[in-house]
Amino acid sequence: MLNSAHDVRSQTFISNSTPLKRIAAMVLLDLITIRTMSIVAAAMIGISAVATMAIPLESTMPFMTMISIIMIVNLYNIIDSSDLHFLYGSLPVLPREVVAAHYLVGILSIAASASPLILGACIGGGSRSDLMNALCAGVGSIFVLLALLLPVYTAWGAQRGGIVFLFSVFLIGIFGFYGPSLPFDAPSINFKELFQVIPLYLLAFSLLVYFISYLISARIYARADH
């Protein structure tokens, strides 16, 4: 009887509110969940912002990737360890809105991690074309990385998803280290020139991949028992 009454109230709230308001509330809940890590991330962003004054803008890409991944992985770790799935299931929000909030937190973390690039370009007097190329290369690659990572975490949880992610990073590192010495001819690609030609196309493609990843994760989450 109580569950039925709760379902009625939830459906009434959902019908009387807008998706944007519900998603915004879930984003706020996610940010509160990772508030401690947000302080650490802010310190890392400050350090990388200072570093941009002494090193090339492209050298801050690892900082961008690390900060973004740490933020979103920390969110999923807390969700699993604290069983927040049950809390989300009791809230008057749709499953796809819960997932949308997680993906928006990913976008916010990318935007925050990219701020040192913008600051470094403004202070250092970098050209707009160099800034655009650097942002599209870094932000686009992080979007694709998160697009591959988040469905795995949604389907398998933080622990098993983390194992898959670490294994993937290991394979990428092995290929990046030994790839140039493999005994076969492969066409060399100048990624810097490539990004100069299609920076906006690269960013648009990464956003499309990120959106498709959201649709996949939302479908997985909706089928799960929460």
Number of strands: 0
Count of DSSP-assigned helices:
9
Distance between the termini: 19 Å
Share of residues in strands: under 5%
Query: What's the story with the biggest beta sheet?
Result: none
- What is the overall silhouette? globular
Q: Quick check: average pLDDT?
A: 75
Taking pLDDT < 50 over at least 5 consecutive residues as the criterion, the unreliable ranges are: 1-8, 182-186
Descriptive notes:
This protein is mostly helical. Helices cover 83% and strands 0% of the residues. It has nine helices and no strands. Helix 2 (19-33) packs across helix 6 (95-124) and helix 6 (95-124) packs across helix 7. The longest helix has 51 residues, at 128-178. It is globular. It starts with a helix and ends with a helix.
